[in-house]
UniProtKB/TrEMBL annotation:
Its EC number is 3.4.24.-. Its cofactor is Zn(2+). The lineage of its organism: Bacteria, Bacillati, Actinomycetota, Actinomycetes, Kitasatosporales. Residues 12-22 have a biased composition (Low complexity). Its main location: secreted. The active site is at E362, H449. This is Neutral metalloproteinase. Extracellular zinc metalloprotease.
Length: 547
């Protein structure tokens, strides 16, 4: 989530409108053949995982989520292991080169038996960055389609560098994520601290033949009890010999730690004597922990019941949360390296960054890494950030919490701007002064937190439609680029379509044109090629100028 904008390496959108349209129409020609389905004060009431009391836990995944692809963690592990034994035949079927090998990252089987297998590639033993792909295989074994991060042939003249990297820890890779001819490259990682105090881990790709800098991105993704935001809520804790701890045994063992203004490690696991946590104010250190713990639980429950996903990686294992990071740190972030969410306390009279939509946003960065792994730069970076806003907002609606009702405003509770305004507006993103409402050829040059506006706008329009309306007491007025009037299909269908597109059709290099294709395929899978949902998806992308 963007709180203080962090600049990222960006790229210029090079694809012409005609090429974009041709590519989309070509992809849509195959859609019909790929149909696989018919479709702020109060006290925290703790629920311990020792069997005492209701866990307030995740409900079983409903039938409406079935076509998204439901795999238990055990089934997923078995499917991945099985698919890995077949990678040689899969590479042959895909006509990959003899020096290429496939590594299975994920396998999702949907309600109609179609198997979506996500692969990474290697070339002569080297990782191919930007070479990921997803195959879609019907229940009878027929290959129905493939989505690739690049269509380029993976080959280089030599895997022996002509130059020597200055960094001792550089690794050799094949870089194929730029849309051109793959090249031998060095990948280096520089760690440090960003201007606002967020940890930094910058990955840089350098041509191993010419020394040219090819690409760079920031790997740490920022976001912008008695909970300060969530009010009196039930949280799942664990009883110990000494009292209670913030460990959620019902949701993969999620733990919440207090960093005590530190900036490394995990700090101390939050504990309590009587299982009553926080007092609803920032003055009690447990309050922020309650909100973070609750937000993680609600996000887990949303993934489980609404999307049929067993945790961030689909493996039943939880991430962990850290609160009270740094001194006057006005941000929150997700870090793949620790598989954790981290929250600052704000500065002065600012509030801790632990509101429900922020928690959902940060956990969803982990979900994106575990699925499409959208590059955090250019248009794909905007889609990465938008995915966190889209599902973070969906978590807020899903939680149905009277103290933090669902809305299409991002970070409205934490008041980072100091004037009561939210960080971002999904109905009309440009109201924040920086985000884009509609696609244009320069969109990829914006910071990813601002290029995300187009996808945020798409999601709002798809769910709610255009024009003036009031939802949960908040007034919205969403425009369209083409002057069209849209009727929304509802939030549930909208987030199901987005998640399916993310989990089985998008790749690391997906741009906005690719997102349109991916969501049209997802809508076809879920609701049929003749469904109103597919028509709505297409009309809504046109309304934000993605054609």
């Amino acid at each position: 989530m963007n709180l203080h904008t962090t600049p990222h390496n960006s790229r210029t959108a090079r694809t012409t409108r005609g090429t974009r349209t041709t590519r989309r129409l070509a992809a849509l020609a195959a859609v019909a053949a790929m149909v696989v389905a018919g479709v702020q004060t109060g006290s925290a009431v703790a629920t311990s995982a020792d069997g005492n009391g209701d866990n307030g836990g995740a409900s079983a995944a409903p039938t409406t989520a079935a076509a998204l692809g439901i795999n238990s963690s055990a089934d997923r592990a078995t499917a991945i292991k099985s698919a890995q034994t077949e990678t040689a035949s899969a590479a042959k079927a895909l006509k990959l080169g003899g020096q290429e090998k496939l590594i299975v990252r994920d396998v999702i089987t949907d309600a109609r038996g179609t198997v979506h297998t996500r692969y990474e590639r290697t070339y002569d033993g080297l990782p191919v960055l930007g070479g990921d792909l997803v195959t879609h295989t019907a229940a009878d074994g027929t290959l129905k389609g493939v989505d690739k991060a690049t269509d380029a042939k993976i080959a280089v003249a030599s895997t022996t560098p002509k130059l020597k990297s200055a960094a001792a820890d550089a690794r050799k890779v094949i870089w194929a994520g730029h849309g051109g001819k793959p090249v031998l490259a060095f990948e280096t990682v520089k760690t440090g601290v960003q201007k606002d105090g967020t940890p930094s881990r910058v990955h840089t790709l350098t041509d191993a033949t010419t020394g040219e800098k090819l690409y760079s991105y920031e790997a740490v993704k920022t976001g912008a009890g008695h909970g300060q935001y969530s009010g009196e809520v039930e949280i799942t804790t664990t009883k110990t010999d000494a009292g209670f701890e913030l460990t959620d045994g019902e949701r993969g063992g999620h733990k919440t730690y207090d960093l005590d203004q530190g900036s490394s490690g995990t700090g101390a696991l939050v504990t309590d004597d009587d299982d009553t946590w926080g007092d609803g104010t920032a003055g009690d250190r447990q309050t922020a922990a309650v909100d973070a713990h609750y937000g993680a639980a609600k996000t887990w429950d949303f993934y489980k019941s609404a999307l049929g996903r067993d945790g961030i990686r689909g493996d039943g294992q939880a991430a962990y949360s850290r609160v009270h990071y740094g001194k006057a740190y006005v941000n929150a972030f997700w870090d793949d390296s620790c598989f954790c969410m981290t929250y600052g306390d704000g500065e002065g009279d600012k509030k801790p960054l632990t509101s429900l939509d922020v928690a959902g946003h940060e956990m969803t960065h982990g979900l994106t890494s575990a699925t499409a792994d959208l590059n955090y730069s250019g248009e794909s970076g905007g889609l990465n950030e938008a995915t966190s806003d889209i599902l973070g907002t969906s978590v807020e609606f899903f939680a149905d919490n009277a103290s933090d009702t669902g809305d299409y405003l991002i970070g409205e509770k934490i008041d980072i701007n100091g004037d009561g305004t939210p960080l971002r507006y999904m109905d009309q993103p440009s109201k924040d002064g920086s985000s884009a409402d509609y696609w244009d050829e320069n969109l990829g040059n914006l910071d990813v937190h601002h290029s995300s506006g187009v996808a945020n706008h798409f999601f709002y329009l798809l769910a709610e439609g255009s024009g003036k309306k009031t939802i949960n007491g908040v007034d919205y007025d969403s425009p369209t680029a083409d002057g069209s009037t849209l009727t929304g299909i509802g939030r549930e269908k909208a987030y199901q379509i987005w998640y399916k597109a993310l989990s089985v059709y998008m790749t690391s290099t997906t741009d906005y044109a690719g997102a349109r294709v991916a969501t049209e395929k997802a809508a076809t899978d879920l609701f049929g090629a003749d469904g109103e949902e597919l028509k709505a998806v297409s009309a809504t992308w046109a309304a934000v100028n993605v054609k």
